[in-house]
Amino acid sequence: MGDITHRMLTATQYIAPLMANFDPSFSSNSTVRYSDNGNLFVVQWDNVHLKDREADGPFTFQAVLDRNGTIVFNYRDIPIAVESMNSTEHPVKVGLSDAFLARLPSSQPSDENRRTIYEYHRVELNTSTLVSRSSFELTHLQTCLQHKTCDLCLTSNLTTGCGWCNTLQRCSDGIDRHRQEWLDYNCPEEAKGTCEDYNPFLSEGTGTPYNQSSPGPTSSSVTEEHTVTKDIQTTPPDHIGIPENTAIIAGVVAALVLLVVLTLLAVYYINTHPTVAPPFYLMQRRTNNYWPSMKFRNQGCQSSYAEVELGGHEKEGFIEAEQ
């Protein structure tokens, strides 16, 4: 049941109504059939025999996978007790298991693409209750992966330990078969945030949300075995028209240019018309102590020099004072 075929597949990633050392080629009546109607996927083993134990009789059983996640194991003919089957040639398993494959850093160049298998979930059925005309139904637990939005991911009471990765648009606790992708896109750090931290936009014409600052995978050594399951759009859409802040800046610049022009015109007018009222008005205000008064330092009857203090204006010289 894994995305990648490897020698540990039957030990870590399987749905097994009855895994054993069967030999379907022993009898022409032995078949393995399947049916899929879009809602139910059924695999049925008909009249199969154990290798080197053909005299024990044929087994007939099936596995039913429902679209809603329910799994049913049905057993019509189980001629011997499952506990008596030998696991020397092939493991005997009844139940479920899943694992994720992860790339680990290695100091050896030859191990650059080495993968490690981590089995994170297993369900083993009680084989003593597995007899002819029996049936087992397995219903799935609520998991983080079922949540399709950030709000449901972080607030649902049905699941715990969930985090939202905005880059992948995925809810997860980081422990599932997509863990490598979760790590490659720095999702453990993103999952520490809240829904308010994300500001998704819609790409023009597609309606696909994405994060404008979405990082790409942190690992560049992706092997052919690993396939990113979703295309991530990392470039912002083209905006049409002038942004609002650009119009504001243009208005400020225009006002400054107008102010400078008016100032230059005023200076030019004053310099070319020295006898009109405005220049005289300024001269009159200056003589009527409009500007800051001069201060002197008096030292008895001796003459001294004092620096003229004109507030924030430049110092224009010195004046001699006597007292």
UniProtKB/TrEMBL annotation:
InterPro entries to which the protein is assigned, alphabetical: Plexin_repeat (IPR002165), PLXDC (IPR031152), PSI (IPR016201)
UniProt KW Membrane keyword: yes
Keyword match Signal: yes
Subcellular compartments: Membrane
Entry-linked SMART domains: PSI
Keywords for this protein: Glycoprotein, Membrane, Signal, Transmembrane, Transmembrane helix
Residue intervals of the PSI domain: 143-188
Transmembrane segments: 247-270
Compositionally biased residues, Polar residues: 206-217
Positions of the UniProt region annotated as Disordered: 206-237
GO cellular component: membrane
Membrane topology qualifier: Single-pass type I membrane protein
Family: Belongs to the plexin family.
Protein name: Plexin domain-containing protein 1
Source organism (scientific name): Liparis tanakae (Tanaka's snailfish)
